[in-house]
Specification:
The structure is a homodimer. Chain A is α/β, with parallel strands linked by helices and about 350 residues long. Chain A has three domains: about 45 residues, 434 Repressor (Amino-terminal Domain), CATH 1.10.260.40; about 130 residues, Response regulator (Rossmann fold, 3-Layer(aba) Sandwich), CATH 3.40.50; about 130 residues, Response regulator (Rossmann fold). Helix content of chain A is about 45%, strand content about 15%. The first copy, chain A, contains twelve helices and twelve strands. In chain A, the strands form three sheets. Chain A has a six-stranded parallel sheet with strand order 2-1-3-4-5-11. A four-stranded parallel sheet of chain A has the order 7-6-8-9, covered by helices on one side. Chain A has a two-stranded antiparallel ribbon with strand order 10-12. In chain A, strand 3, helix 7 and strand 4 form a beta-alpha-beta unit. Chain A is elongated and about 85 Å long. Chain A binds a DNA duplex (30 and 30 nucleotides) through helix 2 and helix 4.
Chain lengths: ~350, ~350
DNA sequence: CGAGGGGCTGTTAGCGGTAACATAGCCGAT
DNA sequence: ATCGGCTATGTTACCGCTAACAGCCCCTCG
């Protein structure tokens, strides 16, 4: 049974209430609740009991203001609706869990202006660090991050200049690598299918690297197709159909992500097309979903979990005093699956 | 005292810095930056310019403490790694965007203890409202929510007792409805495939409703299979294989979510099984992914976007003074797709 | 037996804003 | 000229908590 000792039961409780209920000073209560400093066992028990009975929940706003310390880490990502960012988040949470730090997520929907707002909003809560997806930001965003006086980690990508630290892979290199593998397997009429979003810089860089490697082999894309919005799986299907109709002689389809790749794969299988003999396929990300498909789509793991972990480690580390912007490059592994011919 | 604003460039700025730079009082700066009260155009311009030049970012911690107002709404969900909760979130964000309120997400991983921690943590930031998935919480969680003195909306489910308000569907009814449709289509040997998680109360309730309806028709489940962890699509495939091996005479497979249903569908198609003639299939959620599958899986839309929207509306509304716990029931529509025989 | 040192608790002064009220001009109406 | 009322700005007192320091008590040790 919870007792309602106060005259106004709806008033939110403060340290003072606990202090009065337990007969010690507010300071002692504060010490008990934060486990800081020496408090006798008897007092501690008494305070804890009082706090529990009252249902006291500390006010972190006041605490943060007084101590100039906030246990929050801002994590800013473009989207929650594809499986890649939640996995990064999982990595961040994993690592942060042991540190007393707590992630707070902001979503930008791939809009630089929105990102600027979210960063501003986030910084106004004075977090202990920020993890931001990508290296491309508005001038104002970069300035805010740089001036914030907290560790900043830009993640996913390392092809560009970081404000402070960075953890990611080279998407240009990833695109190149995939192209090389495809060419080595003997494919020559290669098409690209991807997202239309002009702000998906990483997809853009993969395509760049991909085309570079093609060019080096004296090839160029035979066709391309872009989409935006809708069910990625369905779009992959539709785009694949469109490309195959338009360019019947293509022998490889490179997708900018696994989801549309999976759609393409299902389409090809349904059409009875010989994969990877007549046509090869590849995606990007290494999402778990691929495990359940009738055939393994070739892909590259984007190191999402690892990126989240390393980013969080940097924040947690600096939090304890380390300094200096470091750039950590991770190396994705190519998973050839069953949709590229064996050489 | 360190009152020299220029001496330490890394010191974070305060209202005082802007006030000194623009030659007005802190109060006036505060008014300008919040667009509150009358300030002359000239002064406003001067202040804004100074703030911009300095790169001042307001300290919401101090602001919130002083004004006893926080524009945050806690949203607590079990997981980010299936597509259902991100969509709820999208609905919440949509609606909140127009209100000056901002969602802050907490993830519990389906653990009641973790949920309790997250709620505590959240409440300690004194948000303007809380949206929590589900009606099942620890005693302490319910107590905290009830005492918080802010609007609480429990979402997704309405089969149970709400702390304050609730928006959701009846999962029991949903299960019942699906069972009725299946029975009406003539299926009789029905199996259930679902998640093992003991804390997925909504899946549990659907199964209960499902079995109730079966019982009413004099039927009971012929077989069941549970999983936990891993790629849901793959698990769906594996479980389906297991069930079909073990109980070759089943004629319907009811899945607790679309993802494993999709895996099952792909498996059946690959095996050349006549769907929906020989075997019927159904899932739950109505996820977008289904659009891209070779055949439309029967499912029920869980009204995720709508739930998020309505929940946010309640918070935003109460924020403006409305009172009283309301329960809003939404009604999912059964989408028969192509995996249930037409009657 | 007094000094020195812990262990434990209390006191004071903010942290950086904002609510509420006070004040200084300036105007037109009386 | 007096007054009231308005606009634009400043002053004061906190918001709820914690850092830093100040005590007090009791024990140990030379």
């Amino acid at each position: 049974m919870t007792k309602a000792p106060v005259s106004d039961p709806r008033r939110t409780l403060t340290l003072r209430d606990v202090s009065e209920a337990s007969g010690v000073s507010e300071m002692t209560v504060s010490r008990v609740l934060r486990n800081r400093g020496d408090v006798s066992v008897a007092t501690r028990e008494r305070v804890l009991e009082a706090a529990r009975n009252l249902g006291y929940v500390p006010n972190k706003i006041a605490g943060a203001l007084a101590s100039q310390r906030v246990n929050l880490v801002g994590v800013i990502i473009p989207s929650l609706s594809n499986m890649v960012f939640p996995e990064v988040l999982a990595g961040v949470s994993d690592t942060l869990d042991d540190t007393g730090l707590q992630p707070v997520v902001g979503v930008t929907n791939y809009s630089p202006e929105r990102e600027e707002q979210v960063i501003y909003e986030m910084l106004s809560w004075r977090p202990s660090g920020m993890i931001v997806a990508g290296l491309e930001h508005t001038e104002a965003s970069r300035a805010m991050l740089a001036q914030a006086g907290i560790p900043i980690v830009e993640i996913m990508d390392i092809d560009g200049e970081a404000v402070d630290s960075a953890v990611g892979i080279s998407h240009r290199r990833a695109g190149r690598q995939m192209a090389e593998a495809i060419i080595a397997a003997g494919y020559r009429k290669i098409a690209f299918l991807g997202t239309m979003m002009p702000h998906d810089h990483r997809a853009r860089k993969r395509l760049q690297g991909f085309e570079e490697a093609l060019a080096k082999a004296g090839l160029k894309l035979v066709d391309q197709e872009f989409y935006s919005g809708g069910s990625a799986l369905l779009k992959g299907r539709e785009m694949t159909e469109a490309v195959l109709k338009r360019s019947p002689d293509v022998d490889f389809l490179y997708y900018s992500n696994d989801m549309i790749g999976a759609g393409g794969l299902l389409y090809c299988l349904a059409q009875g097309i010989d994969v990877p003999g007549r046509i090869g396929l590849a995606g990007f990300n290494g999402v778990e979903l691929l495990d359940g498909l009738p055939r393994r789509l070739a892909t590259m793991d984007a190191c999402r979990l690892e990126i989240g972990r390393r980013a969080a480690e940097i924040i947690a580390g600096k939090h304890e005093g380390v300094i200096g912007g470091e750039v950590i490059e991770l190396f994705p592994t190519l998973q050839p699956g069953d949709t590229i011919r064996k050489v």
